[in-house]
Design a protein that fits this description.
184 residues, 0% strand
């Protein structure tokens, strides 16, 4: 139970970091590349640890974290690369973030389909947020623009926050969504 609470709280905190990062990218588009690379590397490593912890937790319905082991390892490696090669990597950081967002959104599209099979009414909202996030992630890869990065980070934060809110139940008697059909 501690792992699931850690992962759920971690995802919410990472979502908040995505929101803040997105707002910073939109409001201060000429922020220092080195500072962004260092902060980005640290956040990527933290996100990787949270994803792996989520995957290893005993999530009751295994929706939010089912694809997080490989993605968590990818984030750890990407975070280490960004931290160790931040001067050489800074021109590619936005594209790497775009790849991350695109990958995460594609996995969340799969999660939305699984949520539909479980009877979770919010599966269509998860799907919509995932598609929006994926489109913005792909646009970021192509354009490598700071403002698109801001929108992409905001969409990723919203998608992640919503998925964790709707699919992670802390105990079998957790009735946050009384309309759910899990286990029937």
């Amino acid at each position: 139970m501690k792992q699931i609470k850690f992962a759920r709280t971690g995802y919410i905190l990472i979502s908040i970091l995505f929101y803040l990062s997105g707002i910073l990218c939109l409001m201060i588009p000429n922020i220092s590349g080195k500072a962004v690379a260092i902060a980005g590397g640290i956040v990527l490593i933290a996100y990787g640890i949270i994803k792996i912890t989520g995957y290893l937790s005993k999530d009751l319905y295994c929706l939010a974290f089912q694809y997080d082991f490989a993605c968590g390892i990818f984030l750890l490696v990407l975070g280490i690369v960004v931290l160790t090669a931040n001067q050489r990597f800074k021109g590619h950081l936005l594209s790497a973030v775009g790849v991350l967002i695109l990958l995460d959104s594609l996995l969340c599209i799969q999660t939305s389909m699984d949520a539909k099979r479980f009877g979770l009414p919010s599966w269509s909202v998860i799907l919509a947020f995932s598609i929006l996030s994926g489109v913005l992630g792909a646009a970021l890869i192509v354009t490598n623009m700071q403002r698109i990065a801001g929108c992409s980070l905001l969409a990723e934060g919203l998608m992640r926050h919503y998925i964790v809110h709707c699919t992670v139940y802390l105990s079998p008697d957790y009735h946050h969504f009384p309309e759910r059909k899990f286990g029937k």
